[in-house]
Amino acid sequence: MILIIDFGSQYNQLIARRVRENKVFCQVEPPGISLEQITALAPKGIILSGGPASIYAKNSPKCDEGIFGLGIPVLGICYGMQYAVHVLGGKVEGAKKREYGPAELEIIEQGGLFKGVEQKTPCWMSHGDTTVSLPPGFSVTAHTANTAFAAMENRQRRIFGFQFHPEVTHTPRGAVMLKNFLFDICACEKNWTMQNFVKQETAKIREQAGNSNVILGLSGGVDSSVAAVLIHRAIGSQLKPIFVDNGLLREGEAKRLKEVFKEHLGMPVLFVSAKRRFLSELAGVEDPEKKRKIIGRVFMEVFEAQALKIKGAKFLAQGTLYPDIIESVSAFGGPSAVIKSHHNVGGLPKKMRLKLIEPLKYLFKDEVRKLGEQLGLPQDMVWRQPFPGPGLAIRILGPVSEKRLKILRQVDAVIQEEIRKAGLYKKLWQAFPVLLPIKSVGIMGDERTYENIVALRAVTSTDAMTADWARLPHELLATISNRVINEIRGVNRMVYDISSKPPSTIEWE
Ligand code: XMP
After folding, report:
1. CATH of region 194-246+280-382, choose from 3.30.540.10, 3.40.50.620, 1.10.220.10, 3.40.50.720
2. Which residue from 191, 197, 381, 450 lies 20 to 30 Å from 258 (Cα-Cα)?
3. What is the atom index within ligand 1 of the atom nearest the CA of 467?
4. CB-based burial of residue 463 (10 Å sphere; 0-12 exposed, 13-18 middle, 19+ buried)?
């Protein structure tokens, strides 16, 4: 494995991605990781990430300097390189102005990490401080017009530094450089495959669970579904998945879940129908945050009541993903690992003192999808667009009622169908309708109508932190609006949401 020490760069997850694309496992750890912990992980190489701090800032992140004496190859990127320079006896200085953007890298010393890379190649710079003299034993291997020490190495000690970012696509040959580090320098093996992951992880789950039962809240989303199938493969019927039908799901969703888990995967799921309870607690509630709180609380109460009936349960499994865990704080103040509670599940049942099993916690979303495919989950479940925990309740502006849920479900079904037909389902982050709390006048046949307005929301995004409204083809918009207004009673107008995030959000509530 490769250890990545997180100095807080916004590109950290990208470094991890690049390593894993080469079928090499890697783990991102905070700078506070001890030498003993590092030795126990036995990494074949260490990558020091970039970060927003200046090495001279009071609280700048630092790792144990002993890493340079372990005999393990080290690659420092941006701040990571400056840290290496500083610790090993070179000099870093605050540059007069930040260098940000593309630059041409001129390679002085070919071979090593630059094996197979042209002598001149574009690279991406993003730094304030800069190296002004190298530590003893190091030589400069590349420069740019503004940066004399754009890359350095001590090949004998196998310590390398890049001032630029090899992990971003703006450094087109960065992938080759990282590959050289992984295979030529660290002698990594390409053994990080989904098959191996399943083998290792099921063994781990078996050991962790022993003879105890494991409870899991199944939501129908990708993460909890994949976690369920993986754990089921490890411990079979010791896994007790619970699905709470809150009545706020899309058309046919609960039925499909039953079909897939019971029939296709042969996994018994405890289905709890709590639709009435949710709807009566939500009656008349308009405020979005109140809706969320009610749904979270009722879910927990229903889930806990069911979980308490399961004998010998010692664990709660969750589909937490890697990005939830390694969110680093990009603002000054350095990196820190923030653990988000899995907001779809809403926390641990408090009465039960359960321990957590989180078998996906080192995976990225696309890896989870690959894993789902490997485990035999059907395509429609593996590639499902994200769906919020509070469900359709936050897509009905104003109070939620059975009648309004019915309208929204019908509209949603048309949108899903047409988006899929147009081959756009996977390209869009999300596409869904929002039912507005106002009515408008229309004309149907010879009759005046006074009915609901539905907004169509479709966005592209990579992580939901930012999103752009999707430029859907006009013809597709026309088909959707014609079908919705003609086929669904209670809707006489459709509008398209052309706002991006920020300043708007993806959901309307
Ligand atoms: P916003 O609306 O904040 O949404 O731009 C970003 C992403 O998060 C989803 N979302 C939620 N997911 N519980 C969830 O599990 C929630 O309360 C919630 N609110 C928003 C939203 O669908 C989008 O993908």
Report:
1. 3.40.50.620
2. 197
3. 5
4. exposed
Ligand 1 contacts CB of residue 390 (under 6 A): yes
pLDDT tens column, 173-205: 999 999 999 999 999 999 999 999 999 999 999
501 pocket-lining for ligand 1 (C-beta < 6 Å): yes
How far is Cα 496 from Cα 509, in angstroms, rounded to an integer?
16
Average pLDDT, the chain: 92
Catalytic residue chosen out of the listed positions 127, 143, 153, 167: 167
Q: Is the CB of 386 under 6 A from ligand 1?
A: yes
Average pLDDT over residues 165-171: 93
Residue 387 CA: nearest ligand 1 atom is: 22
C-alpha of residue 508 to centroid of ligand 1, in Å = 10
428 CB near ligand 1 (under 6 Å): no
Q: In whole angstroms, how far apart are CA 212 and each of 5, 231, 239, 311, 314? A: 35, 13, 9, 9, 6
pLDDT tens readout for residues 303-315: 999 999 999 999 9
What size, in residues, is the chain? 509
| pLDDT at residue number 347 | 54
Clarify whether 186 is annotated catalytic. no
Q: Which helix (H) or strand (E) holds 105?
A: strand 91-107
pLDDT at site 323: 74
CATH architecture entry for 403-496: 2-Layer Sandwich (3.30)
Q: Coil, strand or helix: which one is 66?
A: helix
- Ligand 1: which atom is nearest the Cα of residue 461? 24
For the chain, the structural domain boundaries read 2-185, 194-246+280-382, 403-496
Report, as an integer, the average pLDDT of 130-157. 97
Judged by phi (left if over 0) then psi (alpha if -120 to 50, else beta), residue 423 lies in left
Verify whether ligand 1 is closer than 6 Å to residue 241 (CB atom). no
Distance of alpha carbon 21 from alpha carbon 188, whole angstroms = 13
Cα–Cα distance for residue pair 355/348, rounded to 1 Å: 9
pLDDT tier for residue 336 given thresholds of 50, 70 and 90: very low
- Position 466 scores a pLDDT of 85
Confidence band for 366, pLDDT divided at 50, 70 and 90: confident
